[in-house]
Amino acid sequence: MKCCACGKFMAAVEGVTCPKCDRKSHRACVKIPEGVQVQPTWLCPDCKIQTPRKSDQNTPVRGLNSENIIKQGEEKPQSPVAQGFKESELALELRKFREELRETRQEFRSFRQEMFDLRNSIKSC
Ligand SMILES: [Zn+2]
Ligand SMILES: [Zn+2]
């Protein structure tokens, strides 16, 4: 018998049983303390992932329709991602510009310092 959370061997008596797939997991793997009864609504990590979301449950017809819904869902995020990429590029340019500005400012400051030193040396002469 294998734990369905970590895949390692476990004894049949230990662990918790998933009510859906009837597989067992180490208590430690599913974070259920020793001696605590598993809730009837509890599912193993695998079943939790596979459990359809509420929006999917509302879908009346399975098959082609649900496939279309998945495809639409996949296409939708593409444009915001592309926009986000452009924005991040712009932000990167801005950051570069700012860094250049800072460098220019530092150069100017050192230039002023040089002028100051020069003036001091002239005075001392
Ligand atoms: Zn385990
Ligand atoms: Zn399960």
UniProtKB/TrEMBL annotation:
Keywords: Coiled coil, Metal-binding, Zinc, Zinc-finger
GO molecular function ontology, one term from the record: zinc ion binding
Coiled coil region boundaries: 87-114
Domain PHD-type: 3-47
Protein name: (apollo) hypothetical protein
